[in-house]
Amino acid sequence: MNFTNVTAVAKANVYFDGKVVSHTILFADQSKKTLGLIYAGTYHFGTAAAERMEITDGTCEVQLDGSDSKQTHGAGTHFDVPANSGFTISVAEGICQYVCSFLS
Which residues contact 90 (CB under 8 A, 6 or more apart)? Predict the structure, then answer.
């Protein structure tokens, strides 16, 4: 996945003592995405805006808030998270890489 004509924010977004790290890229149309890494572990994120998480490398297991089921996602797949909700993401081993798009 390549992006052109963007501004990259050099300061990283660091969560869970460095176990989840992302960088923000800003587009000319005022939209933004984050590109990140998730190290092995289980983490919960809340969402204000709706998000699409595209997995670019590795594998993760995801449970959306309010759901009883978990889904496994690998490279080339994605999952959507509604606004004002959240999700729990687990990486069993290695690193999972992702691109997060903020949907309107």
Answer: 41, 42, 43, 60, 61, 62
Tokens representing 32?
Answer: 């933004």
Distance CA 22, CA 5 (A): 19
pTM above 0.70, yes or no: yes
As a whole number of angstroms, the distance between CA 99 and CA 21 comes to 12
Unique residue bearing structure tokens 């983490």: 43
pLDDT at 73: 98
* Residue 77 identity: T
- In the chain, the domains with their CATH numbers are 6-103 (2.60.120.10)
* CA distance linking residue 26 with residue 3, whole number of Å: 10
